[in-house]
Write a structure and sequence with these properties.
The chain has helices at 20-23, 46-53, and strands at residues 4-7, 28-31, 61-63. Strand 1 (4-7), helix 1 and strand 2 (28-31) form a beta-alpha-beta unit. It is built from 2 helices and 3 strands, in the order E-H-E-H-E. The chain has one domain (4-71). 15% of the residues lie in helices and 14% in strands. The chain has a 3-stranded parallel beta sheet, with no helix packed on it. The longest helix is centred in the middle third of the chain and has 8 residues, at 46-53. The chain is α/β, with parallel strands linked by helices and 80 residues long.
């Protein structure tokens, strides 16, 4: 049986989770709502990007893309 850890965390909180991906390769980690990245129509916050880079290349870490438009600071959400 394969277990999944489904997390609802903001970017800075992910630092506590970063060690689990490489230490527990059999554990699937799902980061919900893209860790609540701010959607502004521009580039993401560099701090958010730095936290997310901790998970780059880890085959057991996934991001759920949901609530994306609701997180936009501009309504309606930017298309680019």
């Amino acid at each position: 049986m394969r277990c999944t850890l489904d997390v609802v965390m903001r970017g800075a909180e992910l630092e506590r989770l970063a060690h689990l991906g490489p230490e527990m390769p059999g554990l699937r980690i799902m980061i919900d709502h893209l860790a609540f990245v701010k959607v502004t129509g521009g580039l993401p916050d560099p701090a958010w990007s730095a936290f997310m880079e901790n998970f780059a290349g880890l085959p057991n870490v996934f991001c759920k893309v949901s609530r994306f438009t609701e997180q936009a600071g501009i309504q309606p959400a930017p298309l680019s």
